[in-house]
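Morning run. Coffee first, then this:
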Amino acid sequence: MSKRRILASILAIGVLMALTMGLGQAQGTEPPQVLQAQEPAEAAVTVSSRIPIQGRLTNGAGVPLNGNYDIRMRLYGASSGGAALCEDTDTVTVSKGLFHAYMDHCSSSDISGQRLYLGIKVESDPEMTPRQPIYPIPYAWSLRPGAIIKDARDVVLKVQSTGSGDSDAFIADASGTGEAIEAYAKDGIGVFAKSDTFVALQAYSYDNTNNPAIFGCSAGSAAACDPYRDDAAAGVMGFGSGRIGVYGVSHSTAAIDPPGPGVYGISDTGDGVRGKSNSTMGRGVYARNTGGGIALYGHANSTLSSHHFYPTLYLVQEKAGGDFIVGASSLWGTRYWRVNRNGKGFFNGGTQSSGADFAEQMAVTGEELNYEPGDVLVISPDADRTVELASHPFDTTVIGVYSTQPAVLAGAPDTDGPLAGIPVAITGIVPCKVSAENGPIHRGDLLVTSSTPGRAMKAGANPPPGTVLGKALGELEEGTGTLDILVSLH
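And here it is:
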């Protein structure tokens, strides 16, 4: 029986490694011979997926062999036992003992930085034992799991995809409970992502109700950015200690929808964008547009339009002495209007409404369906703060007209349901039902109640005190109709 020996060197995935190994018994009984390793081939500039293997093959007596031999190469994750991670068989030409071969069937899923062992089998000989451990050169340590790539240059690591469509340059997957990417830069940018036509940076967080998919922190010290601050299940969460949590800038001027927002958030069931500030002088959300456009744009499509739970803008003020909203010339500048915590409004320039009168919400005698806008109303003798249709001429209990569109409605509670009662215009201009039973009505005529229920008529000369409803702003020659009147009780 004879023995063959092989001395091989490997160039694997850009990492230079060397190994020495022996083959199992084949033919003959010559003692094994120790051989010298060949110089490894120089690494190519572009890393190939093929793993080059080269070495020197002799018989047991140390005589270099010549000819073609089938060599099987296997990579293992253990020094003995276990299944091969990948393998390949190559028919190589041996000349004066020298040969080179390639492993073509290993991938990044097989080799991920773990320690490897190479087993080689020549022809029908058993696989050599022990397996040869693969020792990477020092540079290879920068690619192993947990490695640190450190340098003072501007770009320490660049991953680039030149493919088309949805071709990802870099994917980070944290299948456990840790972070997929954690980046730190002393003076520069921790992570910079760029895409010409697609998403530059995309992050997913599944089955997570406590932490965001992307967490950004700006603070004066690393201790301020502790991991317990990223405690919101958000797509993007920003924390700033004395600084800005999330800052978005848009230079877009195109007429698109949305028109190039600085910050754009979408949520199926929660908040699209949420801002929070723990500083007395800070802002939960700060929006600014210096180009003449809209600083803050809100869009809602509430499924409960008859309620107040889902408005386009919902304001909460916890402090009793605070304001819901303030309008000013600049930050801390001159205030022009505000609404305080009690719902009271202050307007330096007055108010303007499309309505035309001041009305009070009041209950009615009988069914509300029996009343119409324009009806002349009197105080009911049967219940407090209740009105009914006027039905007697010169009634001193006249109170006003059923308002068509009040500019101000007093006495109406904030409720999600329909208001009880009707709006009664007690001053201002309002459409009013009138009758010519006391003669034609001309502009400026005083009006009083008539015998026709719910209608006013011309007062004539010297009406009794307390009976005048107001003044006519239109004319009615005969019959009945509706005129604008100025309600002015006296």
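The radius of gyration is 44 Å. Good start to the day.
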